TrEMBL record:
Swiss-Prot/TrEMBL domain comment: The last Arg residue of the ACP-binding site is essential for the weak association between ACP/AcpP and FabH.
The protein's name: Beta-ketoacyl-[acyl-carrier-protein] synthase III
Residue ranges annotated for the Beta-ketoacyl-[acyl-carrier-protein] synthase III C-terminal domain, each copy included: 261-348
Source species of the chain: Streptomyces iconiensis
Gene: fabH
Top-level EC class as recorded in UniProt: transferase
Record carries keyword Metal-binding: no
Family note: Belongs to the thiolase-like superfamily. FabH family.
Protein's UniProt keywords contain Acetylation: no
Pathway recorded for this protein: Lipid metabolism; fatty acid biosynthesis
Catalytic residue list: C133, H275, N305
Subcellular location: Cytoplasm
Length: 353
């Protein structure tokens, strides 16, 4: 656990310098996460795909993952995680719901209004954010902005994805990686010097590489109504090797920016909560940042890559298991399709369960 120590004044000044609008600071007040009960192991996948437990474990670090029910949808995951985050925050209220997802229940409308309705938050502002696996960090920045501008006092920020509904079940390079789940945090207005205050969220994108991760068909470019042209192109496709390199570079750069902005040094970071894309990416990121591997939190072994849910689901799990303690200095970072990436910092607050 870290105490305030050197850099605390700079951190406070940095946080204050990033206050905008009415100048309210967004503070994490609750956390929740949920995965559907059905578990699919590597052995289950090997029975129907040309792959093996050995390949999947050694190349990705994944042993099993959770898969949504046949009649389930992303909103079902988001509602469960959102409910737990609200409970952890000690109140059932929020005046905005921001949902990061790549697998909305329907192409139109957004899924967040239904989630808000089912959580008893009808009337709250509710909308989706599309930034693939970095979606949660984009949604977090959006919630922080709503609070800073005085447009909301409590924001429920959810990352939820049902990626198994989007991957080609016959594509062994994606079907073994992606999985389903949801995670959420509650943001409220708070003290910039207090625990839980979000640092500046560093975000970036590179649309020149949009083809590295893509669902080619079903949008306005290849229209869903022209079924003959779309065919199997409605599945998620990824160029793994180049994506891997980009993931390490982009998360490392964003992480350095976020840690510097907080007035910390990388060695001050107690826990890194990075997007769980591949255990080898986490290892390469730890090397790149010179962070001891023991500070890299991970749950990829039993949940796989859950897209926008990845970071908040890991926060929830680590909090529930006592692997996060109040006062820990956290670095959050993510990367994914777009390309898009981001990072931010916070000191973990004392939270309920
Ligand atoms: O979450 C958003 C961001 N996503 C990422 O950051 C993912 C980044 N990429 C990766 O994690 C890795 O690139 C993968 C896990 C997707 C692939 O691992 P890799 O070590 O880069 O494998 P590769 O694509 O270079 O493929 C190596 C071999 C190929 O066979 P040949 O051509 O050498 O004969 C693939 O066909 O492994 C083969 N392969 C498989 N073999 C068994 C690919 N998938 C599988 C599989 N089982 N599931």
């Amino acid at each position: 656990m870290s105490s305030a120590g050197p850099g605390a004044r700079e951190a406070l000044e940095t946080r204050e310098s990033h206050r905008t609008g009415c100048g309210h600071t967004a503070v994490v007040a609750g956390v929740g996460g949920w995965v559907p009960p059905r578990v699919v192991t590597n052995h289950d996948l090997s029975a129907r795909l040309d792959t093996s437990d050995e390949w999947i474990r050694s190349r990705t670090g994944i042993a099993r993952r959770h898969v949504i029910a046949r009649d389930g949808a992303t909103s079902d995951l988001a509602v469960e995680a959102g409910r737990l985050a609200l409970k952890s925050s000690g109140t059932a209220e929020a005046d905005a719901v921001v949902l990061a997802t790549t697998t909305p229940d329907h192409p139109c409308p957004a899924t967040a209004p239904e989630v808000a309705h089912r959580l008893g938050l009808g009337g709250a502002a509710a909308f989706d954010v599309a930034a693939v696996c970095t979606g949660f960090l984009y949604a977090l920045a959006t919630g922080q902005g709503l609070i800073a501008a005085g447009s909301a006092e409590r924001v429920l920020v959810i990352g939820a994805d049902a990626f198994t509904t989007l991957v080609d079940p016959q594509d062994r390079s994606t079907a073994v990686i992606f999985a389903d789940g949801a995670g959420a945090v509650v943001l409220r207005t708070g003290d910039p010097a207090g625990d839980g205050a979000l640092g500046r969220v560093f975000l970036g994108s590179d649309g020149s590489r949009s083809g590295l991760i893509q669902v080619p068909g079903g949008g306005s470019r290849q229209r869903a109504k022209d079924r003959s042209a779309v065919g199997g192109d409605c599945y998620f496709r990824m160029h793994g090797q180049e994506t891997f390199r980009q993931a390490v570079d982009r998360m490392a750069t964003a992480s350095r920016d976020a840690v510097g902005s907080a007035g910390w040094r990388l060695r001050d970071v107690d826990r890194v909560v990075a997007h769980q894309a591949n255990a080898r990416i986490l290892g390469a990121l730890a090397d790149e940042l010179d962070v001891p591997p023991g500070r890299m939190l991970s749950n990829i072994e039993h949940v796989g890559n859950t897209g926008a849910a990845s970071v908040p689901l890991l926060l929830h799990e680590a909090h529930a298991q006592g692997r996060l303690e109040a006062g820990n200095r956290l670095l959050l970072t993510a990367f994914g399709g777009g390309l898009a990436w981001g990072a931010t910092t916070l000191v973990w607050p004392r939270l309920g369960h």
